[in-house]
Automatic annotation (TrEMBL):
Pfam families: Amino_oxidase. This is NAD(P)/FAD-dependent oxidoreductase. The keyword Signal applies. Residues 18-478 form the Amine oxidase domain. One of its GO terms (molecular function) is oxidoreductase activity. It comes from the Bacteria. InterPro entries: Amino_oxidase (IPR002937), FAD/NAD-bd_sf (IPR036188), Retinol_saturase (IPR052206). Gene3D superfamilies: FAD/NAD(P)-binding domain. Transmembrane segments: none annotated. PANTHER family: AMINE OXIDASE DOMAIN-CONTAINING PROTEIN, BLR7054 PROTEIN. The lineage of its organism: Bacteria, Pseudomonadati, Bacteroidota, Cytophagia, Cytophagales.
Amino acid sequence: MSKLTEKEYDFVIIGSGLGGLACAYILASEGHSVVVLEKNHQIGGHLQVYSRDKTIFDTGVHYVGSLNEGENLYQFFKYFGILDNLKLKRMDDERFDVIRFQDGMEYDYAQGYDAFEKKLISYFPEEEQAIKTYCVKIKEVCSKFPLYNLRIGGDSYQMDEQLLTLNAYDYIASITSNERLQNVLGGSNLLYAGVKEMTPFYVHALIMNSYLSGAYKFIDGGSQIAIQMSRGIRIFGGAIYKHKKVISANYDENGSIVSIALENGEIVRGKQFISNVHPAVTIDIFGEDRFMNVYRNRIKNLPNSISTFLVHLSFHENSFEYLNYNIYQHHIDNVWDGIDYEEETWPQTYFVCTPYISRNKKFAESMSIMTYMKSSETDKWAHTAKTVSEPGERDLEYDLFKKEKEEKVLRKIEEVFPGIRSKIKAVHSATPLTFRDYIGNRDGSLYGVLQNSNAPTRTQINTKTRVPNLYLTGQNISMHGILGVTVSAFVTCFAFVDKEKLIEKVINA
């Protein structure tokens, strides 16, 4: 009998994304026996990195917010004991994000509300009142989310009912008739795959507030979060196992899970189970018959946010200067329309960043370009799987498809950086299938379940399931992103830990 199978754990956590790791840390630090099971070769979910041409590339996390001293994520990272060990690069105070349009006009986002307002007013002096109203509204909305302010708010940890139906696009349009300002304010909506008719304003507000409260890049990649978290988990006696794919569960006569079965035949016993994989995939793993028809059908029919095509460029040595800001490039006037792209004009909108590598502070070793891609574009290869753990193959047609898409992206990026081709050493890319295989959802969605201001309660997913000892965590529970997923882990753990005492520990970390 292996170490993994020889005992019954207090908590068995499926998936080592940030949500799973955060739950594991919280519960292990409270004295519980915890094991985390990861199907892939690398822990971390969206925190994973990979190396090509001796260059490090992030798969999902390219920058992070709320890291000014005393801000919420700063305190969460203090609580986890990882803040002092993270290698961070503060982004430019005057322009951490740049919203850029086809006409070449650029609009900078500055860090901090005062600087942000001042910068925008310099572009739109006649819209001063609208810009100030917008900032006040963001602060007001964020104040209604207790956990984002390190408070406990009765039974509602995340949402104020009155805010759920406020639409992001509609609200921004209501405070100004200046269409360019509307598009500048919504210009970073790739951060949440914004849909004009559906995205709630609170999603926009929480994310904007986060980056205005301290925007940083991870030096040498975001995987350091997962590495540091895993060290803390092990210090408290927790265990993490890779290459452990969960395929089914075993139940007692009362309908509680007693153990889970792994693809390799191992059985892992536990008292409580937490799934950090997509709720629809969780239902598949734990058995459709264990969930009510209404719940099962709702979860399985919830639309996910769109997926992505991610292009990584590696540069010849000292050929492209490092950019300490990101660019949101829009080749269309309305920044919300890029998600409904036409193949002939794709990509219409995309995110550009240069990772910060410690060995070369002046020049960038690489560039990442992230744009929208519908998972339907790769449906013909959906039956295939390819990861380090499952080294399957895809055909020549798939390789040609990727090359064609890479070329389209390169043509666009040349418009932003003329002459960039001569500086490129190699090109790599990832499709929705890559994200599907590594993250463990059905369609490669980057941000999970699509929030809907028209039917907000339909997209709210409780951490507790009908199975008595099965709970959920991750980006589908609270919000996506480093901060959102961290909050979701605390919400999940409130079922097992005194919530007031736990938040007090975060505040006093």
